[in-house]
Design a protein that fits this description.
The protein is an all-alpha fold and 104 residues long. Helix content is 65%, strand content 0%.
């Protein structure tokens, strides 16, 4: 996979989490032991990995497939990657698409 994300290591993750903690709209989603900044930082890190996997691995794998079994296998891998993306879009409360008006 090409490029390296500044959040793709523990130090970058920690720096991003601390930065996100300074954003009041994110902190409105904190409750009990749930710290939204850290959930959001983790999701962003995993989303970046999934997007790179889709663009750098999964899509080229599909385009290179030359028989029905390989095409189906590549599509299943893409489906699984997109499920992972979906999870990390749904996990942070800040990304609640049903609540977009609150974050405007």
């Amino acid at each position: 996979m090409e490029g390296r994300s500044p959040i793709n290591d523990a130090g970058g993750y920690m720096a991003l989490g601390r930065r996100l903690e300074g954003c009041p709209p994110i902190n409105t989603y904190n409750h009990d032991d749930h710290k939204e900044a850290w959930v959001l930082a983790h999701s962003l890190l995993d989303l970046e990995k999934s997007f790179r996997a889709f663009l750098d691995v999964r899509l080229p794998q599909l385009l290179a497939a030359d028989n029905p079994d390989d095409i189906c296998g590549a599509l299943i891998d893409i489906r699984d990657e997109l499920r992972h993306v979906y999870y990390h879009l749904r996990d942070p409360e800040f990304f609640d698409f049903d609540d977009l008006e609150k974050t405007k």
